[in-house]
Specification:
Chain lengths: 150, 86
């Protein structure tokens, strides 16, 4: 995964997400705070036991929307330093990381706020779908409709 | 612009892809058209999608479309269910 021209890492990946490695690459001298959010695969959906998940994306649009989320994070938080928005694709086992948001900044308030904003926007904007496989069947997880005031 | 009947190769994702059984759902439409009309056409030509019609989303050139968003020949059009990343 490469840093883009803003020094950010924005990616979709079939490989496991290396959160400490990503954080190490983002942090530079001016940074005093790093907030990370990881979504991980839970062992149940409404009480039904999950075996594994398959994620798929409309990849070019998903990357475009991840870049839009990054731009919004920066617009809302001018002192935000580098950030990472990474979503895993393909088959994930229980407790694996499906999504990573990293926000770095000189001070903690911006890091926390931007990180929370980032994951919330990913969930309402990025075209990714989740097919959940149980011990006794499967379901396409019910999603959300993006707000279209874009 | 002159109206033309064209084959629109609609990209389908998630449950729509599973129901169509392919990554692309070709539909005949008259262009220029709109996102709502393209969605009607795909649900008409792939009736297995029709029960989902009211929840489906359309993207045109990798941006979310509104009902009235125009579609012309050569545009990239995708149809998919509500999103569930994270």
């Amino acid at each position: 995964m490469e840093l883009d021209s803003a020094g950010d890492i924005i990616a979709l990946t079939p490989e496991p997400i290396d959160t400490p490695g990503i954080v190490r690459r983002l942090v530079r001298a001016r940074v005093g705070a790093v907030a990370t959010f990881e979504g991980v695969v839970r062992d149940n959906l409404h009480g039904r036991r999950t075996r594994h998940l398959d994620y798929e994306a409309y990849e070019p649009m998903a990357l475009k929307m991840l870049r839009r989320v990054a731009a919004e994070m920066r617009a809302n938080h001018p002192d935000l330093d580098r950030l990472a928005l990474i979503h895993r694709l393909g088959r994930l086992q229980l407790s694996e990381t499906s999504v990573l948001v990293v926000a770095t900044s000189p001070h903690r308030a911006t890091a926390f706020d931007a990180c929370r904003f980032g994951i919330d926007r990913i969930k309402t904007l990025v075209p990714i779908w989740k097919h959940e496989h149980f011990e006794d069947g499967d379901v396409w997880v019910e999603g959300v409709r993006p707000t279209l005031d874009l | 612009m002159k109206a033309d009947r064209v084959l629109l190769n609609i990209l389908v994702f998630g449950q729509c892809r599973a129901l169509v059984g392919a990554d692309v759902a070709p539909v005949m439409v008259v262009v220029p058209t709109t996102a709502a009309s393209a969605l009607d056409a795909v649900c008409d030509q792939y009736p297995q999608l029709a029960p989902l019609r009211s929840s489906l989303l359309v993207a045109v050139n990798e941006d979310y479309a509104r009902a009235e968003t125009p579609i012309n020949a050569g545009d990239e059009v995708a149809v998919f269910p509500p999103i569930a990343g994270g």
